[in-house]
Design a protein that fits this description.
Layout lengths: L1 H30 L5 E3 L18 E7 L3 H19 L5 E8 L3 H11 L8 E6 L1 H11 L9 E8 L5 E2 L15 E2 L3 H35 L3
Parallel strand pairs: 2-3, 3-4
Antiparallel strand pairs: 1-6, 2-5, 5-6, 5-7
Helix pairs in contact: 2-3, 2-5
């Protein structure tokens, strides 16, 4: 009986378990499709702060507005559900834009977020009213700025394009350009998944590029 049990365990480890792993990985790979391009060539953040850029980064963009204290819950959600999940990913950044003259409020919000967070990839950037309005307008979102604030946060790819899923089966009336800062489930389930898809897209492109290079070397090109 003991020998029979051991044989079953060995059989499982050698054949059945690897097959299960393969099926899981294959299914996961097939589920990763490219995240749709929503708006091409949005205004680059370098027009507001020359030391920052959307290029070669995956950027989460939020608009803090004139009354940050009232809306701070959404930014804390963004920190907990998105930033902390991707802080170790290369080229990931959060761009938090606020109106000039609100430096004290921005510093206070940053202090609250940084209590238990490494702020290395959080970027608080002050802009003029015109600059903020132009940046948001380039996203072509249906949600308008109110006092230079919106509850939507946006995902910009490394080429400076706004990305978003084409639809949402659970919430068909949800505007797809942006994610609701006040909805923990939307950040945790929808936005997090979309960012993972975008990272996988770049990873797959990188692998394909290296594969093509290796193929060319083999044929002497």
């Amino acid at each position: 009986m003991m020998k029979l049990t051991k044989k079953r365990v060995v059989l499982f480890l050698l054949f059945i378990f690897p097959l299960i792993c393969f099926l899981i990985l294959s299914t996961g790979k097939n589920n990763f499709t490219k995240l749709p391009l929503a708006t091409k060539n949005v205004v680059d953040i370098s027009t507001i702060n020359p030391s920052k850029t959307f290029k070669d980064h995956i950027s989460v963009v939020c608009f803090l507005g004139n009354d940050m204290n009232t809306h701070k819950g959404g930014f804390l959600n963004l920190n907990e559900k998105i930033y902390k999940k991707f802080i170790d990913y290369k080229k990931f950044q959060i761009i938090a834009i606020y109106p000039k003259g609100k430096e004290e409020e921005a510093a206070s919000l940053k202090k609250q977020i940084s209590a238990f967070t490494n702020m290395v990839n959080w970027n608080f950037i002050a802009g003029s009213e015109e600059q903020i309005t132009n940046l948001h307008a380039s996203f072509k979102s249906k949600e308008q700025l109110t006092n230079f604030y919106t509850f939507k946060t946006f995902l910009v790819d490394k080429n400076g394009n706004l990305r978003a899923r084409a639809d949402d089966l659970d919430k068909k009336n949800r505007e797809t350009l942006g994610y609701n800062l006040n909805s923990v489930s939307e950040l945790n389930k929808i936005m997090k998944d979309d960012i993972l898809v975008l990272f996988y897209e770049y990873y797959a492109a990188f692998k394909e590029k290296n594969k093509n290079k290796a193929d060319r070397k083999e044929v002497g090109v």
